[in-house]
Amino acid sequence: MLFIAAISSGRRQLVAVGMIAPFVSLVDLTSSTSFAAENKKGFLPVTDNKDGYSFLYPFGWQEVTIEGQDKVYKDVIEPLESVSVTVFPTNKEDIRDFGPPDQVAGTLIKKVLAPPSQKTKLIEAKEQEVDGRAYYTFEFVAQAPNFTRHALSAIVIGNGKLYTLTTGANERRWGKVKDQLQTIVESFKVTNFLK
């Protein structure tokens, strides 16, 4: 890893600069121009050609390994600020085959996205179509004894898989980072891949 520091650099910038080199290999330079056009200032792209998806994450976040997750990136200073992707095989062809957005979101929140000990609340769930594929996106909060996490998720079916992207932050920082987290969710795309 290469660390470059200027005297006026902040802690977050120093850590982020040192982390660029490992992520360069994750970027598929031949990926579609539409994804490249979506790249926004302050974000870095992830393209997983093996599982067939891509998304943006904020500059300065670090990749970590968590069992059961395909990809996870976390803020190095605020660990509740993170994004994760899970991929499960499915026989379903469309996310709508599981039910309407609010029903599917409620089930995922209670059974997968939050521990049973946390009190959860679905704020909003909706369906949108991107490149001819149905996506469900939803917002929720999960309350633990010592913190509340405010989160956004996107779920979609493609390539014989169910994809779930979830990002969030501590409720106390929600107002400051919600636009950043919304950018992550909006950038999430499932692509077709060769088997």
Automatic annotation (TrEMBL):
Highest rank taxon of the organism: Eukaryota
One BP annotation, GO: photosynthesis
A Gene Ontology cellular-component term: extrinsic component of membrane
Pfam family, one: PsbP
Domain PsbP C-terminal: 41-190
Example of a GO MF term: calcium ion binding
Protein name per the record: PsbP C-terminal domain-containing protein
